[in-house]
Amino acid sequence: MSRQDQKQKKVTLLDVAKHADVSRATASLVVRKSPLVGAETRQRVEAAMRELGYVYNMGAARLRAERSHTIGVVVPNLTNPFFAELLSGMEASVDAAGLVMIIANTGDGPPRQAIVLQRLREHGVDGIILCPAAGTTDEIASQIEGWKLPLVQVLRHVTDELDYAGADYVAGMEEAVEYLVSLGHRAISFAAHGPVHSAYQERVQGFLGAMKRFGLRPEPVIRFPDRVDQIAQEADALFVKDRAPTAVICFNDLVAHGLAAGFYDRGLKIGRDISLIGFDDVADAEAMRPRLTSVSTAPNEIGQKAAALLLDRIAQPALPPRRWINPTRLHIRDSCRPLSSS
């Protein structure tokens, strides 16, 4: 290569390493004045730098070494009020640590999730809190390991190789069934919606296990559309053939709100003709009439803990994977009544 060509082409550290017949890592140690490099090798690399006209960019090196003080937060559905409470908890912890959040929405699709994660990586975030899209595989653990990017799973988990913060969905569903049984209910249905993921499976597991424990025939899990208005229109799906539940437990409060509208249209009064329990206990549960009994998962607390796990992971990358499960609590209000009072 002529000296003119060298001037036109920006000389890289890799060019220096090749010219000096050393690895790029060794050349990097030389420019950073590391004592780990022998005198003869150092002289050879420095001679190559002079000959090629290599200039060490101190500013770029400093940027590479410093943190961005930003973290990425990736959720499947920003329109769900549950995630607003989750993000509020995260923000409190992140803000206290002097960081800011970049929030992204995947629409619960792995292809979109892959794009979002790559973009966050390109923006140089210090770490990511991810509620995995349905269909995410455990291969994400090796991908994140390759990226050397701290990541915490929240609400849903796909691998034990990464940190996780979530709720005890199984226990929450068991408590809801137990409460209805204590009120005399035996025909209890579970109204679900959305794609299948770990949180979905754990809720179903808790429902079926509790029904079996009380010697009750588990009603089929009835799936509903995602939109509240569509859920209301499909409420009749709970009352087909010989199935007529006296109580319904919902996958989340969104489903409960949809069914409440559907029951109203059907002429059923919640708390008198049918009992209804939500899940997650978001702020809207208090606004419904009658007020909605719901299983509290404390999304604000989960958000705070997920952020704390990530901050720990950023500071100490070698920590073993940790798993934090928030206990649930049934918040009893007005939407359930003893069967005998119907």
Structure description:
The structure is a single chain. The protein has helices at residues 3-8, 13-20, 24-31, 39-52, 58-65, 81-96, 110-122, 140-147, 169-182, 198-213, 228-233, 253-266, 284-287, 299-315, and strands at 70-75, 100-105, 127-130, 151-154, 163-167, 188-193, 221-224, 247-250, 275-280, 293-296, 323-326, 329-331. A 6-stranded parallel β-sheet has the order 2-1-3-4-5-11, sandwiched between helices. It has a 6-stranded mixed β-sheet with strand order 7-6-8-9-10-12, with helices on both faces. By secondary structure, the chain is of the alpha/beta class. It has 3 domains: 3-64, 434 Repressor (Amino-terminal Domain), CATH 1.10.260; 68-167 and 299-326, 3-Layer(aba) Sandwich (Rossmann fold); 169-297 and 330-341, Rossmann fold, CATH 3.40.50.2300. The N and C termini lie far apart (91 Å). Helix 6 (81-96) runs parallel beside helix 14 and helix 9 (169-182) packs parallel to helix 10 (198-213). The protein contains 14 helices and 12 strands. Strand 8, helix 12 (253-266) and strand 9 (275-280) form a beta-alpha-beta unit. Residues 11-65 form the HTH lacI-type domain. InterPro entries: HTH_LacI, Lambda_DNA-bd_dom_sf, Peripla_BP/Lac1_sug-bd_dom, Peripla_BP_I. This is LacI family transcriptional regulator. Keywords: DNA-binding, Repressor, Transcription, Transcription regulation. It comes from Pseudorhizobium tarimense.
